[in-house]
Predict the structure.
Amino acid sequence: MHPPQIDLDAKYVVQTYARQPMVLARGEGVWVWDTDGKRFQDWVAGIAVDVLGHSHPKWVAAIREQAGRLVHTSNLYHNEHQAVLAREIVGITGLDRVFFANSGTEANEAAIKIARRWAKAYHSDAKHKLITFVNSFHGRTYGGMSATGQEKYQKPFTPLVPGFVHVPADDWAALDSAADEDVCAIMVETIQGEGGVRPIPAETMRALRRLCDERNILLIVDEVQCGIGRTGKWMAYEHSGVLPDIVPLAKGLGGGFPIGACVVRGDAATCLKVGEHGSTFAGGPLACKAGLATLEIIREEAILENAEVVGTHLQEGLRNVGESTGCLSELRGMGLMLGLVLDRPIAKQVLTHCRENGLLINAPSDTLIRIVPPLVITKEEVDWALPILEAAIRASS
Ligand SMILES: *Cc1c(COP(=O)(O)O)cnc(C)c1O
């Protein structure tokens, strides 16, 4: 009954995660199975990572084939796929060049380094500050954590990297006065993910672009979570018509394989010189093959359209659940990146009920349920899961 891996974890793994008491062993599409053979519909998707669902046959075939050919050679050499994937990423973002990384926080480290390098190269040493938003999340390394606008991630690890200024996302006056000549970049998530699925209004995104243009500031749009089709478009910033200068990507980009990318435009794309930044693993043939397969499958199977259509269907269903249970105070997000805000602190109980009845959800706080399923999910699968969520809310309230 009790899987041995849970005891091994308790004894041998650094205890930094509050894990659900289950051991996942297998996945197919939107479904995963634990080691007892129990099946769950997965509305977490590895935290907005598994855009193609689990074990997509074409994606599996691509990385199997590549694993048998070549896995790692370092960036001392070219490989067959890195530059090809860079061209694809340039195509879907509208920017110019790509620096490869292995994760979201590393993509953000590159963004931060490039912003400061750009300012040093074209402006002054003094132009070093970065403005980010309260409630933002940009990762766990020192740069990403210092950029993050949430004290809980920072407090145990001070002192932080200097030069980060956090302003409330809805306080334009604070932003306006913080954006002085020492600021090299403003960094924003189009939809704050870890901070509670909070979209930045399109009008604010456009105002940010104008402000950055006027004051010679780079606009970094962290699409690590909301990018790669999550909102029904390749990039969430497309909804506002804004073109950023720097776009960190990761989560969905490899379809489950770890990969990160920092996409850059204009002067920012050429300010780093040979030897100034690098990564041993980044842009390896296996990761890039996974990225290429992911983007190709998204295109072939019209997955952006699916995210939009099924996203709308799911939003309607969630509103109905809210109405019938009387517990919904707000539904936030776009496409298949949704936050169900409950009017009472029952999210953890709802999560447990859902799990016991075969549905995986994520509860970042006591009142918030985050829903980020694979982008291949169908209306029928949504309709299978909604009654479980509804029953769970009823049982918890
Ligand atoms: C998850 C996330 C990160 C960090 O990504 P890791 O791969 O965990 O390092 C950074 N920014 C945003 C917006 C994220 O959602």
Remarks:
- Residues 103-105, 108, 137-139, 189, 193-194, 222, 224-225, 250-251 surround pyridoxal-5'-phosphate (CB under 6 Å).
- The radius of gyration is 21 Å.
- The chain has a mean pLDDT of 97.
- The chain has 13 helices and 16 strands.
